[in-house]
Amino acid sequence: MNTLVRRRWPFAALVLVLLFVTGFAVVQANVLGMGERFDRWSALVENWVDPPPDRPTLPTVVVTPEPSPSPTPEITLAPSASPTPSPTPIPRVAVDVDLVNDPAAVFTSQITDKDCAVAGTQMVLAILGLGDNSEAFQQEIKNRIGEWETLSDSLNGGWGPAAVGEALGDYGATEYKVRAYDSYTDALRDSAIAITEMNKPVVMFPWWGAHTWVMTGYRADADPTLFDDAKISGAYILDPWYPRESSIWGQSDEPGNFEDLAELERNWPAFQGPPGYESIGPGWTRPEGAYPERDGRFVVLIPTTPREDS
Questions:
Q1: Is residue 155 a contact partner of residue 52, using CB atoms and an 8 Å limit?
Q2: Is pLDDT above 60 for 21?
């Protein structure tokens, strides 16, 4: 521990004691949103005492939707020209895609309440044949966070989307990129396209960025890689929180459960917070401070290269 941190500890300890004594009761009841304020203050004190390293990591790229193409003008052929035969139209059929045939074979529950990102990382590696779903492997990944944590990725240290991407890369799942979308539907659509084209799962960050899900597939009324207007109706999810129950989000769903749009929007909020949390906006909203590229957006970790064994 360096000298600056040693000097800060006595004052920080006093602040934490005062926060605990004055705030415990209201935090438990979340009276007037004090629960969120307590979490924010605790995170700020922790950051000040022992800040995470400030070093380069995977950037968060804000994705803006492409403008709709302009209508193609009609071309009138000269009388002597032979008309080009019309191409056979691609049939529009519903699709049901899931990379995982046996969710139980790759699923792992997070060891502690704080290990969702670790378990999510582990499940992606298991799906890609680069790891297993044992508790020992989860602990191994968890113990290496010091290699991947950065200030820009997680202001209070530990796991963030970029750390998950860096961890995946070090275990052989390279070229995962952090993307942030203004639109919930655009994030879901690009995730579906990536699953189809790359044959790899996507990592989602629901619960205002506090949690981690692994998206292994989706349903749509058409193939989104062929039809720009394909509507995604839901996603297949591995939730490392299972079999726990959350006081905010309720009972977690079993591995490989299909989450329809209403359930996805409830957990990956595209709306203001539920009762007691009304002040929390949609998308990424973290108590420890500002993330300019992520705040209010929908963040995913997307594969950008095809699976080698596909």
A1: yes
A2: no
